[in-house]
Amino acid sequence: MSAATEGWRSIGLLGVVLLGLATTVGSGGGLDAVAALGCGSTIQTGNVTANETQSATFAWSYADPNDPALQNLRGRAGEQWFRLGPDGAWVPVSAQDTDQTYTLAQTIFKRDNKAQFRVVVQFTCDGGNKKETEASAFLLVTPGTQGWVDVDAQDQPTSPADVTVAPGATANFVAMAYGDNTYQWQRSNDNAANWADVAGATDWALAVANVQAADDAALFRLSATNSSSGQVIQSRAARLAVNGPMSDAVFPDSNWTTAKIYDTTAAADAVVSARQQTSGGNPGAFRETTHQWTGGNGVSMGLEAAHLLSSATHDPAQTGAIDHVDFSFDVIILSQQGGTPGIAIFPLLAQNGYYFQVYDAGTPLVWTHRTFSGLTATDFVNANAGTSTGPLHPDFSGSGAPIQFGYGTANGSDSVVPITTVSGIDNWSVALTLR
């Protein structure tokens, strides 16, 4: 491996270069290699001063354009710019190119003041030798007129966005104003009726650690006070949503709805009903579901129903696209008469008037725990896929319609006698993981 190739890979290990100076690396290693290569020259770059709201451009040049060694230079193999990160590591900020400049395309802020940048250039010399040289400089920012803006020099949002996290996670908010300001984050727990300062939160970024269910719907905004004029401006209010598991272990009847999805029994008059039972669950209260239909004529018949929890909703367009879903619940068959058809109880959701299911055949005669982990949109299939004109799968993307979650019950039989199946579900829960 050549020293130049190694240089690209180990740029984070190179030392900091003072303004106007450069180190040179060759196949022989160290500064002594320059003479041996007989090509190229050291390079230099300078500090850049710019006002807030402007872009900033760095450029490098040969330290000595009259250096005789340049006559043996065949060309630049490539160059790349880096920015020194807060952890002391150099982070690439440009692709390899040969235009000798790097421009921060978006507007800059006071927080970018004294940011350090480095350019590393590879030369190709006569005989195929390589030489790598570098130089670094600082960005100096002059505060502009106070005001808010949407993105910064690194194309990152600076107006705080709504955040959705799971319980126990950290919610991060970011805001930035032009001007020589002091900052104070504020929080409202009553939908912006009252605001209180967040203790110690005097930076442009706020991290709310160990978020809990009680933090759901809290609002956060950044207040910026201009050091010269004393003018105070506030950012937009960003909402915190806590994406905790949606669950029910008591099953009040008013919280659930039941509807037939399809009925292919002989008379198409099957009845589905569900109600809360205050005891006999796993443990305590549970939800009891009954499927009942008259006898058939010996041909295959089927019945399926959707049971939805009114509060178990998620709007991808408002609170984030879904990566995957985890279901869990306990199930049991309590009784069955006529042809012992059994029953299946499975994850189900509704979107845009269609029902989508992850079918699970069979339910035991004793309380049994079921888990369905890592379910993506393609795991859910339209319950009426054979006859429906609707989509085959739900839309979990950020443009998807609101989704309501619940469970499905289904059974079938070719029995000629009436059928009644009573089942139970307890400890129902669904957790969403967002993208």
Structure description:
There is one protein chain. This protein has 435 residues and is mostly beta strands. It folds into three domains: 3-142, Immunoglobulins (Immunoglobulin-like); 147-242, Immunoglobulins (Immunoglobulin-like), CATH 2.60.40; 246-434, Sandwich (Jelly Rolls). It is built from three helices and 31 strands. It has helices at residues 3-9, 33-37, 316-319, and strands spanning 24-25, 43-45, 48-51, 56-62, 73-84, 90-92, 101-104, 115-125, 130-142, 147-148, 163-165, 171-174, 177-178, 181-188, 196-197, 205-208, 219-226, 232-234, 238-242, 246-248, 256-263, 271-281, 284-293, 301-314, 322-337, 344-351, 354-357, 368-375, 381-382, 403-413, 419-434. Strands 1, 3, 5, 6, 8 and 9 form a six-stranded mixed beta sheet that branches. Strands 11, 14, 15, 17, 18 and 19 form a six-stranded mixed beta sheet that branches. β17 (219-226) and β18 form a beta hairpin. The two termini are 40 Å apart.
